[in-house]
C-alpha cells in the first residue's frame, strides 16, 4: 500500500496537465510513497496515448465520458492503493512542502476529517478556496453580502497555523481512504459545483474536522480556455445554479426546502432574464452572449426538473433520463451477448 494516492480528473485542461505532472515528478521525499492517477473524462484517446508515453510512471484511466467531477474522482479512488487520498485540480502546481504539511495534519486529525491548504494565483494573490455552508441567509451573492453586512454570518475560526471553514474546494482536498469510504464518497448527483461542499458537510456531520493549512500553499494556474470558450462558460454558470438546487434538495426538507427552491427559481429567472437581454442584441460581446446561453440552459433545466420531478443535473449519471439510457444500453449489450452465444 502507498502512503498517498494523488487523483486528478482531466477534461479540458490537457495544456495544464504537463505542469501538474512535472511538479509531482520533482518531489524527492523518501519518507512517503505516492502514486498518481489521472482520470480522462474527455475521451480524447490521442491525448491519453501521448501522456501515457511521456509519463509512464503515472496511472491513466479512461472514463466512459464526461460524467462529472464526482464520478471521475470516485473512479480514480476505486483504482487507488493509498492510505490517504489527495484530490487535485490539474491546474494545480504541487509542492513537497504542502504535501508534507497536509499529511502531517491528516495523521493527527479526528476521524472523518478533510484537509486542504492555501491556493494562490500565478501572481501570488489569494484564491479563496473555502467557505461556510450555504444557508437561507446566503442563497445568492446579494443576500450573502447583506447578511455579512448585518453580521449574521460568522467567519470561520482560525489560529496561527490552521483555518477551520465549513468546506474547502475540491481543487485541493485530502482525507484518509477510511474517511472517504465512511462518509460515502463523492455524490454523483452533482455534475460540477457543490460536490465539495456536500462532501465536507457529510464529513462534518460524522464528527470530522475541516482544516486548511495556512502555512503552505499551491499555485493554481489561470484557465484561459474556459474564459474563451463561451459554451463551456455558459454551461458552468448554469450548472452552478443547478447544483445549488440539488444541494438544498439533499440537505434541507419540508417547508424550508420548498421555500428555498421557490426563492432560487424566482431569483434565477428574474435576474437571469435581465442579464440575458443584452446578449440578444450584443451577440458579438462574449460576456453578454454567455449570460444569454446560460439562461437558455437554465430554462431547459427547469422545464425538465418540473417534468421529471428531480433537481439533479441532466448531465449527471444519476439523472433519471441518464439512468434509463444506461439501463437500455446494458440490456442491448446483454441481448447481443446472448445472440452471440
List the SSEs and their pairings.
Layout: E1 2-10, H1 14-25, E2 34-40, H2 45-54, E3 59-62, H3 69-78, E4 82-88, E5 92-93, H4 96-108, E6 114-120, E7 126-127, E8 130-131, H5 141-149, E9 157-158, E10 162-164, E11 167-168, E12 172-176, H6 177-183, H7 195-205, E13 210-220, H8 224-228, H9 230-251, H10 254-281, H11 286-308, H12 320-340
Helix pairs in contact: 9-10, 9-11, 10-11
Question: Your description of this structure?
Answer:
Strand 6 and strand 7 form a beta hairpin. This protein has twelve helices and 13 strands. The chain is of the alpha/beta class and 341 residues long. Helix content is 50%, strand content 18%.
User: Which structural class is indicated by helix and strand composition?
Assistant: alpha/beta
Which percent range fits the helix content? 40-55%
**Unreliable stretches covering 5 or more consecutive residues:** 327-341
The CATH superfamily of the largest domain appears as Spore Coat Polysaccharide Biosynthesis Protein SpsA, Chain A
Count structural domains: 2
Q: If you average the pLDDT, what whole number results?
A: 90
Strand content: 15-25%
CATH topology label of the largest domain? Spore Coat Polysaccharide Biosynthesis Protein SpsA, Chain A
Number of helices: 12
The geometry reads as: globular
Number of strands: 13
The CATH class of the largest domain turns out to be Alpha Beta
Largest sheet: 6 strands, mixed
Radius of gyration, Cα only, in angstroms? Answer: 21 Å
What is the architecture of the largest domain at the second tier of CATH? Alpha-Beta Complex
Report the span from N to C terminus: 40 Å
Following the backbone from N to C, one meets helices and strands in this order, namely: EHEHEHEEHEEEHEEEEHHEHHHHH
